[in-house]
Amino acid sequence: MTRTRLRRSLITVGAALFAIASVTAPATAQAPHAGLPYQNPALPVADRVNDLLARMSLDEKLGQMTQAERTALNPQSDLATFRIGSVLSGGGSAPSPNNAQSWANMYDSFQRTALSTPLGIPMIYGADAVHGHNNVVGATIFPHNIGLGATRDPALVQQIGRATAEEVAGTGVNWDFAPCLCVVRNDRWGRSYESFGEVPSIPTAMTTIITGLQGTTLGAAPASIMATAKHYIGDGGTTGGVNEGNTQLSEADLRAIHLPPFKAAVDKGVGAVMISYSSWNGVKDHGNHHLITDILKGELGFSGFVVSDWAGIDQIDGQAGFSAGDIDASINAGIDMVMVPTDYKLFISMLRTEVNNGHISRARIDDANRRILTKKFQLGLFEHPFADRSFTGTVGSAAHRALGRQAVRESQVVLKNAGGILPLSKSAKVFVAGKSADDIGMQSGGWTISWQGSSGNTTPGTTVLQGIRNTVTGSGSVRYDRNGNGIDSSYTAAIAVIGETPYAEGAGDRPGGMGLDQEDLTTLSRLRASGVPVIVVLVSGRPLDISAQLPGWRALVEAWLPGTEGQGVADVLFGNVAPTGKLPVTWPQSASQEPINDGDGKTPLFPLGFGLTWPVG
Ligand code: GLC
């Protein structure tokens, strides 16, 4: 069973089990051992950690290093029985109904179970809020990172981090598996849209999102969510842009291209680092002691904890599932918590064996626990273990959506504007076409409500078409037909909103062509045949191979994956704002140029940093 299908089946079963568990969980968890040093918030965190560590059995320490997917915890009481320290929602893994209140209830139910253990160590709950709290229906979905990179606006990105933290906190979740600080070097890679840009300076600048998520000090203010710098290291540099592939670089080049964003993240106090599935010169990152312990923990001084990716340790020996060798290699390399995420009983049993036979030292186990517990104390989980319901109402709030609209405006990159056709008049007679024009799912991309994302009306928001309709006024008019049927020469312009259908991770790898799909090409032909000027709005997670079609277009705007606030696209098209977006990646003349990056001597269609504008007013 592939990972995708396994994920989906787990999620279905779990939704049903959760409904039962939330009814049977104890009403309130008794506060065990109140008054002991580790329970005293007035003491320094280091003292609390030392006191708690001294009271923990080996099994309690092994449990803290174990992260289980919510749907795998069957029965839910296993969370307490096996002293598990962390629960996660994989992509799209949500309670039913999927809304903020239901998430908070789910989180509290798991936490009550965790607190029922003798030492009452709270669990920490992780989820991928990579462009807003994207697993939750009704949440504000911000542009994916590649669009935020186009804004070149670190202050805006910090605000997005804060807004995301409020929505995440309101659902109980206290650990965000974000930001992805990958440096995308080959746009064939299915995770290109998770990168802020192809040069280290852009993701480095955007580490401000960590301060937005955590606050200036983790846990010092309400709605402080622990951030995760991922995926360490080199995921965006794999040969051929193959997801989870092999990055073949000298150490000097690996350090020059892929390390700076992680250094910036560590300097900003990021609480966690997630290891990349990829290999460096043939060695899996998940087992690389030099990368994790020597460089990340030693040289950079990272004092948070290192978490594996989803079943990431399984890949170390190249065999299916995790082996004793995988466990030894990963924990001894410096991984502190393992996202198992399903067979947690077997993992704990095998980890115990590897400690008892001396393959993993007690000191390594204690170091991992010290790191994990330090973050739990700093986050305030011992004092405030339950969802902060004062933030639940911020999920999808007008203020957050306004911020999302601003981010969409700033991320638009105008690549062509022949004859100054843009900005359009608000009283224009426009024809809108394209599969991506009226589809929230399409404009949000992967990691939206489900892991892979999907087309359709998946969550409340404003489509690009709705934004256009909201903007055209007076004698203006808007007609929409997905395929362009009905267009004639009477229209001022035809706006074709086209591009990629949603995908995530390896499903998005494009080893072959990177051109438009047939539906879009057919729609464009129909529009072009009318003789009406064609303005293309491209909804994609990366540059596409559009050189052949570009001469027939009057204008081209790269919208990236804007999320729920499509009004921001219309704001640029009709001149509510002047465009300021700049390419965060080089745009190739053809897919055969990949990898193509700034300074490599190749001649692109549009260079890194390109973006047109026009006078305001
Ligand atoms: C995925 C991704 C990672 C994500 C994790 C948990 O496979 O690689 O980015 O945080 O699993 O969903």
From TrEMBL:
<dbReference type="InterPro" id="IPR051915">
    <property type="entry name" value="Cellulose_Degrad_GH3"/>
</dbReference>
<dbReference type="InterPro" id="IPR006311">
    <property type="entry name" value="TAT_signal"/>
</dbReference>
<dbReference type="InterPro" id="IPR017853">
    <property type="entry name" value="GH"/>
</dbReference>
<keyword id="KW-0732">Signal</keyword>
<keyword id="KW-0378">Hydrolase</keyword>
<keyword id="KW-0326">Glycosidase</keyword>
<feature type="domain" description="Glycoside hydrolase family 3 C-terminal">
    <location>
        <begin position="413"/>
        <end position="613"/>
    </location>
</feature>
<dbReference type="InterPro" id="IPR019800">
    <property type="entry name" value="Glyco_hydro_3_AS"/>
</dbReference>
<feature type="signal peptide">
    <location>
        <begin position="1"/>
        <end position="29"/>
    </location>
</feature>
<dbReference type="InterPro" id="IPR002772">
    <property type="entry name" value="Glyco_hydro_3_C"/>
</dbReference>
<dbReference type="InterPro" id="IPR001764">
    <property type="entry name" value="Glyco_hydro_3_N"/>
</dbReference>
<dbReference type="GO" id="GO:0009251">
    <property type="term" value="P:glucan catabolic process"/>
</dbReference>
<feature type="domain" description="Glycoside hydrolase family 3 N-terminal">
    <location>
        <begin position="58"/>
        <end position="374"/>
    </location>
</feature>
<dbReference type="GO" id="GO:0008422">
    <property type="term" value="F:beta-glucosidase activity"/>
</dbReference>
<protein>
    <recommendedName>
        <fullName>beta-glucosidase</fullName>
        <ecNumber>3.2.1.21</ecNumber>
    </recommendedName>
</protein>
<comment type="similarity">
    <text>Belongs to the glycosyl hydrolase 3 family.</text>
</comment>
<dbReference type="Pfam" id="PF00933">
    <property type="entry name" value="Glyco_hydro_3"/>
</dbReference>
<dbReference type="InterPro" id="IPR036881">
    <property type="entry name" value="Glyco_hydro_3_C_sf"/>
</dbReference>
<dbReference type="Pfam" id="PF01915">
    <property type="entry name" value="Glyco_hydro_3_C"/>
</dbReference>
<dbReference type="InterPro" id="IPR036962">
    <property type="entry name" value="Glyco_hydro_3_N_sf"/>
</dbReference>
